Structures are given as structure tokens and as C-alpha cells.
Amino acid sequence: MQLLRAVSPPLCALVAAIAVFMVSLPNVDASTEELTCTPSDLPFSKVIVGQTKTLSVTMTNTGATSVTVSNMRVNPSVFRVGNLTLPLTLAAGQSVQFDVSFTPTTTGTSHGNVVFTSNASNSELYLALGGLGVNGWSLTAKPGQLAFGNVQLGQRQNLPVVLSNGGSSSVTLSEGGLTGAGFHVSGITLPLTLSAGQSLTFDVVFAPQSVGSVVGNLSLSSPSDPLLQIFLSGTGTAVSVQLSWTASTSPQVVGYNIYRHDSTGSYAKINSSLDADTSYLDASIVSSGTYYYATTAINSSGQESVFSNPVKINIP
What we know:
The strands form seven sheets. A five-stranded mixed beta sheet has the order 2-9-8-4-6, with no helix packed on it. A four-stranded antiparallel beta sheet has the order 1-3-7-5, with no helix packed on it. The protein is flat, with a radius of gyration of 31 Å. 0% of the residues lie in helices and 54% in strands. The chain folds into three domains: 33-134, Sandwich (Immunoglobulin-like), CATH 2.60.40; 139-237, Immunoglobulin-like (Sandwich); 239-315, Immunoglobulin-like. The chain is mainly beta and 316 residues long.
């Protein structure tokens, strides 16, 4: 009875994370609102001067009768409303989605609002706006995305990141954040000051804690620069061993059991139910070492044969 082996890796995935800059609303009794905006305040976070960031808002008529929105005022001019034509009538329970954009012309904080005028019980609906105009990035990270690929459980992989200050003055990194199970950072301590033209190399480490894809984000911030983010992805894997064997010639055989043991243990059955085929994929190995496989045949009476000749597999 001959066994074969192969290894197959799974795939990985990537998500981005976004920083949040909070603003506040005027005092409004939400229980009396018939016309609402979701969200009720719109944080644009940090946007480079001259560039535009757009966010979506949903306006809803929560009342029992139709509402007509007749006018709106947007202040200041760095904020603009798009994809909304007035006057607009919303039936009871109806919603409409529109866009608000922020294009800072100078550095610094901008606060404003959109005021919608309607015949709703709350005749003026306020949508609070806020954003921070910043200069272009002087701080850069290369690469800006780390894909670790497949890393076996119990092992770890290090990838380097070069952090550089391309500006004309020093930059102090005051805060950092790290998300994603199994990711770690080595070789950098905050707060950290980089003088003009200075670079620093540090490592991001992926030591998977379970089988499957993991995404994360490393963020670094300073008072003078926008939030710097490095997107992370990796996949924890167990070694997959593909087994196959020659079918029994006995007509009474209805299936097979598969057994495995390492160099220090005894054989243990690894299939949860009787295998009617002549192949099996063992995807439960989580560490390197030497393993032995054997199969047995089961007849219609439930009787089990002796072990087949074992096959030795070395997992590096």
C-alpha cells in the first residue's frame, strides 16, 4: 500500500484602516427630530492641502408624513455637498444618500456645518463638519504594505520597513498603534525623533496564532504629519499532506481509517469518519518533525484490518 504527499498553501487578504477626527454637533433634542442625517457629524480626519476627501451621508424622513427639503447652507467653502438636488421631497420612511467633500486650502483645523431647511418638525437640520488640513507627508515608510504570505504555525517571519524623514526639519513620532493577531514590531521605540534626511530601519514580525488569513495595520503619528499607516497581511498555515493508497481487493471492505504518529508517540486515528475513498488530506500538522502514516481497512461488519506498511514524512 503506497502513500503520496503534497503541500498546498491557502490565500491571504488585505484591508485598510482609517483614522478618525471627531467633531461635535449643536445641542439638539434627538427625540423631536423628524428629519435626520446618518452620521450626524462628519469627521474628515487629516487631508493634505489642495486634495479632496469625500464622505457619504444618508438623510432619512423618520416621520409619518412626507417632508420637503427646500434649501441648504454650507459653511465654510472648503466643504461642499454633492449628488443632492433641492427642493427634495422624502416620503415617510424614505432616505436619500449624498456626498460631502473637504478640500482644505490651508493647514489647520476647519469646522463647519450644513444646515438643511425643510417643513419637518425640526425645520433646520444641522450636519456638523470637521477636518484638518495638513502639509504633504515628509515622513514615509517603505514599503507601505507588508504581505507575509504563508507562515507555518510555530514559526515567524520578519520583514523590514525603512522609515525616512524627507522634510527640512525634524519629526517626532509620538504615538503608534498595531492591529492584527500575530503581528509584532521590533527595533523601534516611541517617542522617536528623526532629523531632516534621517532614516530608521525596523522589523515587523508575523508569528501566526491560528490557521487562516490575518490582516492588520501599523500606524505612526506625529503632531506635524498626517497619520502614517502600513498595511499588514499574512496567513497562518498548517502543513497539508496528501495521502493515497491502493484499494483493498476484498468486496466486503466499506472504507478506511487513517492513522498518524510522530517519532515519539503512538499511532492515533486522524479521520473523523470512515473514509470511503482511497485518498485523504491531512491538514492538521502544526509543527515540523517526522511523521508516520498507516491505513486500515474496515469491512461491513465493522472489523478492522491490521495496519498497512507505514510511510515516513519529514516536515522541515
